Amino acid sequence: MAATTSTTTTAGKPTLLHLSNSQSQTILWLLEELEIPYDLKLIDREKSGPNKNRAPAVLKETHPLGKSPQLITASGRVVIERSAITAYLIETYDAAGRFKVSGADEDHDGLREQELVGFAEASFNLTALTAMMLHYTKVLSPFFVRPLVAAVSAMLHVGYLDKELDLQLRFMDGLLARGQPYFLSDTDPTRVDFVMIFFVQTVHQSGVVNLAPYPNVLAWHDRCVARPAWKRGMEKGNGYNLAL
Predict the structure, then answer these.
(1) What domain range is 194 assigned to?
(2) What is the pLDDT of residues 21-44, one digit of tens each?
(3) Residue 69 preceded by cis peptide, ω within 30
(4) For residues 7 and 168, what is the distance between their CA atoms, to the nearest angstrom?
(5) On the CB side of 215, how many CA atoms lie within 13 Å of its CA?
(6) How far is CA 139 from CA 132, 147, 150, 151, in A?
(7) What's the pLDDT band for 6 if we cut at 50, 70, 90?
(8) Which single residue of 46, 148, 171, 193 could bond 51 by disulfide (Cβ 3.0 to 4.6 Å)?
(9) CA distances (Å), 224 to each of 23, 124, 164, 215, 229, in order?
(10) Pair (85, 189) in one structural domain
(11) Which one of 42, 65, 93 terminates a domain?
(12) Of 160 and 71, which is predicted with more confidence?
């Protein structure tokens, strides 16, 4: 569905405040999957100065945290956090139920969906974020301390991170080994996929994790980004590079 790129909101349509190179890209994907009219405000990260690569202050005009994504609903309410935004969009606009769990059994019900969304945002996100912070600290540190930083990073990876990442990715790989293309659906992504993919991409794009030992996760990732709606979202966004 065509999006209107503007600096104003349109009555009757949701508006996505979309920050470049951020998790907002997955909300743009969902909006394209839903094929609904929406407004799109493209916001670039700071390009220089002490706040380089951070979100600009303009995002604090609509929410005090100044983060993205922010969804302004058709009624004017500002919603933050991807889990809340995806829940709202699917509940409000997915009349056909394409992106809702079937509820056929305990492996495909609302509780299972919430469990896996919680796993993505708490357990896996924490591990992935820690790995990414160590990676960026090593890459961005001055050359004369980089060997020391790299040594500390290696110890943390060997002692904890590598084992935890492997445990969590094998858990995800097992969920996807049951023959269905998405975590909880045989046909289309659900809220779990829309939330999970960003955390997988943070470690995948940066090279922090090699997904080859987790073939089902890798195939799932490639399947998601091959969807026409994902490609349309990439065309309408303003950059999605999660690697330095």
Answers:
(1) 110-227
(2) 999 999 999 999 999 999 999 999
(3) yes
(4) 40
(5) 3
(6) 10, 11, 9, 13
(7) very low
(8) 46
(9) 15, 19, 24, 14, 9
(10) no
(11) 93
(12) 71
DSSP for residue 60: G
Amino acid at 128: A
Residue 25 near residue 237, CB atoms below 8 Å: yes
Whether 118 and 213 share a structural domain = yes
Task: Indicate the number of domains in the chain.
Answer: 2
Query: How many CA atoms lie less than 13 Å away from 228 in the CB half-sphere?
Result: 4
How many residues are present in the chain? 244
User: Does residue 134 contact residue 161 with C-beta atoms inside 8 Å?
Assistant: yes
Tokens standing for residue 234: 């990439």
Nearest to 240 by CA among 81, 35, 27: 27
Residue 113 to residue 133: CA distance in whole angstroms: 28
Average pLDDT over residues 105-126: 96
d(CA 124, CA 172): 10
